[in-house]
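Table S2 (text version). Query chain:
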Amino acid sequence: MQNGTLLAAVDLGSNSFRLEIGRHDHGQIQRVEYLKETVRQGAGLDEARNLTPEAMARGLDCLARFAERLAGFQRSQVRAVATQTLREARNRDEFLARAHRVLGFPIEVISGREEARLIYQGVAHLLPQSDERRLVVDIGGRSTELILGHQYEAEVTESYRVGSVAWSMRYFPEGEFSEAAFERAEVAAQAILDDAEGRYARGHWNLAYGSSGTIGAIGDILAAAGQGPGISRRGLAWLMERLLAAGHADRVRLEGLKDDRRPVIGGGLSVLLAVFDLLDIQHMQPADGALRHGVLYDLLDREQASGDVRSTTVQRLATRFGVDLAQAGRVGDVAAHLLRQLRGAADDRDRLARHERKLRWAAMLHEIGSLISHSDAHKHGAYILDNADAPGFAQPELHRLGMLVLGHRGKLRKLEGQLGDERFVQQLLCLRLAVILCHARRDPELEGLVLAGKGAGFRLTVPPDWARHFPQSAHLLREERIAWQKTAWSLALA
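Corresponding structure-token output:
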């Protein structure tokens, strides 16, 4: 990526939506602009876990303002991610479709562990490099992420359904503060965080850092009151006394406490107290980095195939499930060769490289389900990918990869919902043809084979006498032509 390129991250959090724009400068990202709006979508889930129309409207209005600032940005320069509220919302697809139209860019609902990994990347890139082992805590509106890491590597990641908005609504619903309410809130938070006690115990890390909203707000309050540096147990006890003295969120007046944070400070403090007690934290340093910074650096890494964590994830999954790596590589090479023939003239080099990389991932994993069943390997492979812990991948992206794996063989009607996407169809065709050509599990003869496409039609040209030399491959290609006749697409053999 060229120096000076602008990158943008949109974070659709449960409490706030944020837009971070940075400029690439020799491997670093320098802030250009930062926008934040308190949307409180996490408070807009009804009893059936649907976003209310009001919550949707608040989010869409905010994204419309972000969209104005992002005018002129290319797809490769922007990544928008959504977290716990949209992980929970049953009507999220309705909101995401409307949000995509308003923002102008797709929005990825990321898993809790992927959120944790990106948070760590944001924190690590904005801290001085050292050999310390770090605990990073991020208390959001409806989830809390815990990460153990070393340098730029997030080694242990987890997300728990406890956060400042959810706990404020549940234990301080009228905004009233009492010792009994704080005790109930802290005990409930500890119950959810209970299994973190062993994995994130004091002996596993040297320093604790806190990221983003709740911890940043508490750090600001304590610093303004002379209770710093950082966040200590004594400082948290002092803040508890101030909230109890006020008795109600509306009456809290503390230097450093912003108006948008006041309604959720009680829930946030109770969760932070639970984390301190459970993990035996004596002192925590608020960090500058957050999810949005991790998203920006991840965008930067994705431009370099060797730095893309998704490639490492694919390799790890292939190894874990005993994939025949030689065959997977062979299929990937052939599929990429066909895709370059099909798309070479229509795509710029960078876009083609991205599509080829994703096609190679599908090839690497197309036999991932064989460990479970040979005959239904494609089905099991798709299921594994839909449910795998896959760092670097957003859920829709992983699902799309799973659909390629599902469709690498067999009838095409099972992919009917995907066949309206031309890019997907092209990748799928190249993968299926590569699997056919490599059916003997040896390098196929590709000289003279040419794949071309026009509109909804594809044509595979083979050399004279090719069918006589490779009769089984020719038979499988004829079967493939018939399979495509049952869709809106066609494949011709010449």
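Notes on Table S2: The chain has a mean pLDDT of 93. The domain at 304-446 is CATH 1.10.3210.10 (Hypothetical protein af1432).
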